[in-house]
Design brief:
Helix content is 64%, strand content 0%. By secondary structure, it is mainly alpha-helical. 17% of the residues are buried. The chain has 7 helices and no strands.
């Protein structure tokens, strides 16, 4: 998954020709991407076969907001929408998705 997100093979030498555009994925699949809790819930509904509990949701939200309050993400998402500034939004979403696919919940699929 990291290879798809970072567009480089992180396991062995070689080219990666497919890249996951995390921003487009979120824009096209999440109903309210500016709400970090709803964002995590909806992504977990796509990635996991069972619902996750509030502790896990909060853990993944913490990966997204990186120590800040939840409104940090809302502000960054709205800044992206208004200015098309992808730098912070992409790095935060990439970190979130990597955490979610490396979690035990994803491994039971």
């Amino acid at each position: 998954m990291e290879s798809l997100i970072y567009s480089r093979n992180t396991i062995a030498w070689g080219e990666i020709y497919t890249v996951l555009d995390s921003i487009s994925f979120v824009k096209n699949n999440i109903s309210n991407p500016s709400d970090p809790i709803e964002l995590v819930k909806e992504i977990s509904g796509i990635l996991y076969c069972e619902n996750i509990n509030d502790d896990r949701i909060n853990y993944f939200v913490s990966q997204l907001v990186d120590g800040y309050d939840n409104y940090y993400w809302t502000s960054e998402w709205l800044q992206y929408i208004n200015n098309n500034d992808t730098l912070t939004v992409k790095s935060r979403l990439d970190k979130l998705l990597i955490a979610m696919v490396n979690a035990a919940e994803f491994q039971v699929m």
